[in-house]
Amino acid sequence: MSSFFVLFKKELRGQLRTYRLLIVVAVFFVFGLGTPLMLKYLHALVPAEDVAISIPEFTTADAVQSYISSLGQLGLIAAILVAMGSVATERESGTAAMTLSKPVGCGSFILAKLAALAVTFGVAIAVGAVGCYLYTVVLFGNPGGFDFFIANLLGALYLLFCLAVTVMYSGFVKSPIAAGGLSLVTLAAIAGTAGLPGMKDYSPGALLSWAEDVASAGGPNSWWVLVVSVALIIITTLIGWQVFKRKEL
Amino acid sequence: MPAIRCQGLTKHYGSIVALDNLDLTIEEKVIFGFLGPNGAGKTTALKIFTGLSRPTSGKAWVAGEEIVSHSRSLQSKIGYLPEEPAFYNWMTGREYLTFVGQLFSLSSGDIVKRCNELLELVDLSRDALRRVSGYSRGMRQRLGIAQALMNKPSVLFLDEPCSALDPLGRLEVLETLIRLKEQATTIFMSSHILADVERVCDVVGIIDRGRLVVESGVEELRQRFAHSVFEIEFEEPAAPFARLLEPLPWVEKVKAGEEGNVFKLRVGARDVATAKVELPRMIAESGLTLRQYQMVLPTLEEVFIELVGNRKD
Fold this sequence. Notes:
The structure holds 2 protein chains of 2 kinds.
Chain A: H1 3-17, H2 20-40, H3 42-45, H4 60-83, H5 88-93, H6 95-100, H7 106-139, H8 145-172, H9 176-193, H10 206-215, H11 223-245
Chain B: E1 4-13, E2 16-26, E3 31-35, H1 42-49, E4 57-62, E5 65-66, H2 72-75, E6 78-81, H3 93-103, H4 108-121, H5 137-149, E7 155-159, H6 167-182, E8 186-190, H7 194-200, E9 203-208, E10 211-217, H8 218-224, E11 229-234, H9 239-245, E12 251-259, E13 262-269, H10 272-286, E14 290-296, H11 300-309
Parallel strand pairs in B: 3-8, 3-9, 6-7, 7-8
Antiparallel strand pairs in B: 1-2, 1-4, 4-5, 9-10, 11-13, 11-14, 12-13
Helix pairs in contact in B: 3-4, 4-5
């Protein structure tokens, strides 16, 4: 068995045993179910006499858009929190040195972490999406299974990008907090570029607005966003690997 | 072919020189003890030899391989135990060894067999299914030794292997090291416990402030310093006599001890010729009953202290 698969299996088992997988899935499941539910019963939750403005009747598109938006915000925070210590903690504790004194490449070490995190978040997004889809169908109407699926894939790609950036920083510094802070600043800056003229068609931050368009009304395909995002995931992973390889353990 | 060799190995951490032009040649099938005070550069050297750190300059070879950072070919031939072995706490002891076996690409059958052997060797069979988070420091150290042996390494690097062990555990580890040497393993160990080094090592290297002070066989080293120690036994308390000796210019140091009714003095002499004349005379004048008087080989600890213990920064 190649060292990548050994490490990948170990990472997945670690996520199960330390309940990280369960917690991430539970978070996504709760907001997957909760988003359509909250929109549907917002009127009941906020008595009309307490608000000056009227709350509109929400539609299927609103429910899906709100879910994708939550995926981007809560998912980003969850991705940073879960991934920020992935390499940094191992360097600090000494487990990385123990593992890398064996015939294991630094590339396998980094890639196994990213792959296991991707699986964790993939499962979580799938569970959250199923919950959201079922409640949206029941409470608002069918959002269209295929479009909803594609929107979730785009959301998952965005979170994979967030994970790749966070894992990269986690290999740069020994402190998980520092890795998390650097990731948050970088990802916030990248999300900000999605609003800039000329950058909107290329920034990974635009993946979420594309996902919202796909899931609700449908919109133009932004293939360059897809290409740039995949390229940046590969580039950040390669940078993470190369920098980590040069670190003292 | 030497098992370990390095030429001009130097490592800087900013302005700090951790290793300064280290030259070493360690033959196969020996146990090499690497001694030095804290911060002398022992762990730095170990990390370079295991491919976990890069030298600033110089070259090193282990098991015939030139050391390149994270070389898989090198790492498949060596075993490494860091000073404080760290494990995934959610794993059991057996799971960790299985994980290590898989990293060495051993077959499932070999992994099970090797795990059983190693768990037996380090006396962890009964605790193999407990999570590592529940292990004591000594148990973690023993698991660390087991994982370092998983691939039957030709060169084994141990950083303070006995530091967390009780006397019985230490004895077992030292006996294991001797057995491994008999099976053609070269062992490079750093240790603060000089008695352990003296017990098992064939060759020692003493390092201080990144520089190798001496590299020699243990016996040869003791012989080299043999001239300077006198061991004297009395039937009466010898502390007053020790106090009499301490200020004398030809005396290096005096260490008093007792064993039952026997009172011992170890006298390190700065001027051996004077000591040979003066000591018997002073003993005769002291009125103490002499049981034994001899010149002895110094312990490794005494040699170590003589070489690096009195350094002035």
